[in-house]
Amino acid sequence: MVCCTTSVCAILVIALAVTSGHGYRPEVLPTMAAALDGPDRYKMVPLEREPKKQSQQDVCLTEGCVHAASNLLKKMDLSVDPCDDFYQFVCGKFRQQKIPDEKSSLTTFSVINDELQDQLRTIVDAPVEETEPRPFVYAKRLFRLCMNKTDIERVSSSRVKELLKSMGGWPVLEAEAWDDGAWNWKKSVYDFRKNGFSVDYFIDFSVGTDLKNSTRKVIDLDQASLGLSREYLIKGMDHKLVKAYYSYMVDIAVLFGADRDRAEKELQESLQFEMALANISLPVEERRNATKLYNPMSITQLQSTYQTIPWREYLSNILPPEVPLKPDEVVIITVPTYIQELQKILSHTPKRIQANYALWRAAASTVSYLSDEFRDRQLKYATAVSGRTEREARWKECVDVSSSSIGLAVGSLYVRRFFKEDAKKSALEITEGIRNEMYKILETVDWMDDTTRQNALDKAKSMTTHIAYPDELLDNNKLIEFYQGLEITEDSYLEAILNLTKFGTDFGFKRLRKPVNKTEWITHGRPAVVNAYYSSIENSIQFPAGILQGTFFSKDRPRYMNYGAIGFVIGHEITHGFDDQGRQFDKNGNLVDWWAPETKSKYLDKASCIIYQYGNYTDSQVNMKLNGINTQGENIADNGGIKQAYRAYKEWVKQNAPEPRLPGLQAFCPSQMFWISAANTWCSTYRDQALSNRITTAVHSPGEFRVVGPLSNMEEFAEDFKCPVGSKMNPKQKCAVW
Known about the structure:
Layout: H1 12-20, H2 28-35, H3 63-75, H4 86-95, E1 105-107, H5 108-124, H6 134-147, H7 149-166, H8 171-174, H9 185-195, E2 203-210, E3 213-223, H10 230-233, H11 240-255, H12 260-279, E4 296-298, H13 299-305, H14 311-318, E5 330-333, H15 336-348, H16 351-364, H17 372-386, H18 394-405, H19 407-417, H20 421-444, H21 450-462, E6 464-468, H22 476-482, H23 493-510, E7 533-535, E8 540-544, H24 559-564, H25 566-576, H26 597-615, E9 618-619, E10 624-625, H27 632-655, H28 670-680, E11 684-686, H29 688-697, H30 703-712, H31 715-721
Signal peptide: 1-23
Main location: membrane
Organism: Ranatra chinensis
């Protein structure tokens, strides 16, 4: 398919005039002109046999189009053959940008988030009005508490030491005065719960939806959260990040008043204990089969199976007092072998070592809210993990704390002030078009039997959509009702954070006895976020207001850009319902095997192709192979999402009309601009440490492979850019699940 003309010389002057009027003179335009008569390496400008003339009216010269074109041109490297490396072609100049010292990476998401932070600052840094509802007052008060470094320097660390002492004492601080007779790990968990700390340092405790009956809530017990990723801890003391973690532990203890020699000895022992917990934990690769993680037991069975832990006492002390355990309470044990092995480890580990581990975890959780000497040491550790060498501006940190901790209130103020309602309508229209393409794919794939196909269609058509924000978020009375019981005084930043933790934990755990509401506004009421979500339990997709802007969406630019950007994201989230994990749940969000055996086998074969493809990518910056197993769900979603978005855009053009081109990018037709816009969303550059950490622990592939992987699997991409078979972007062997 040939879709682009070569007659761009006549309008280069227009493009230059328009773009330079906005302070940007794209040096790329002479290169593009030269490409018309240049060597074969400039095949990003497909040639027609009989070029047709373009008029000025074929180019969109509105402010929105000029702005969009300028942003793209700043990132692109048009000297690269798009059939060889489309990511470098679209993002080459972006990758050359200097990463700010306070960041570990620079991505499209982080750029939008910076803009979002500026907007949120005007909200939380505003004066409190006398008649303002309490939730809004709390959001502003928390920001001010965070900004008050004088009070933080004066009281914070001494208050933490008081808390640690009241929770049994941190042995490394108490030295010989520590009383092991008065301490046990269960009581420490109860103390953590009461004072606003995590209860997950030995056993992860949560209240979640029953995977096999999504109309009710259950208690979930899982392997412990860890202070450093399991993938590193299992490598032992010689690994550089484990060494950095250990050094951080010792230095923080010393800042709290510990003797260094004692800290080095005792915290090495507690780190060995934490490494033992890591070694009995299930690796991420083995946590993708939800059925294997679903092990229900009555509390009686739980007690008879794991006898060394008084389960009724333990669970009752973690749940709020108004949520008593039932005699026949059912608990889901996610990793039975972890609980079994934990009992053994606890039985032969001295209490002092256990306590040093637990109280270290509690102390470490407070460091972000303490004085600069603590935070400076935290930064040194962050440098080892992520490469950043500076803290972000204090106001940015405080905006993040306020918006994440009191998200409903801040989100409500955000949409009232900044969100453009027409974006919600446009995004909904795009979503419906993309959903329709998913239906067509499910109706036509040739490897599904009829029954499984119908089940898949039922699931796709039952998927609910949440765009921008729920209407209830604008109801002050609902916000006041939600935040009832929360107290944030003007006395202490640390106390405010601990109160918020207690409030959030109480809210989550009280849900055990409440009916499940899969469309509840509270769950979808945090719009000031640059992200998108799929929930297998709800069978729902969510696109908060924060992502409906910038690179991802604008009503003032051609549809090919929006379908390529936010459309890609929408298709990605829809496909999550049918990735290797989402496919395990039915239309009602229940863990049910609705696949015919032969069809399931074919699906797994197709997923294996994706696993193999991505598992054989090597990131040249850090010389590391991707983890094809851990990233398969996201990769399946990327591949399905881009296909749906492209087809939806083509369908939109059929129903409407071809769109004008962008100034400075007239050499690229709308179909090609769709792909450019899609790739543009994943432009990114990482520090080595952050990239290595991402490849080791994350479920998302680095941005480069979120472009090269899906697009090289698309015949339509190869056709639009005339990529020869066998080129990097048009390999003979392609993978496709959906």
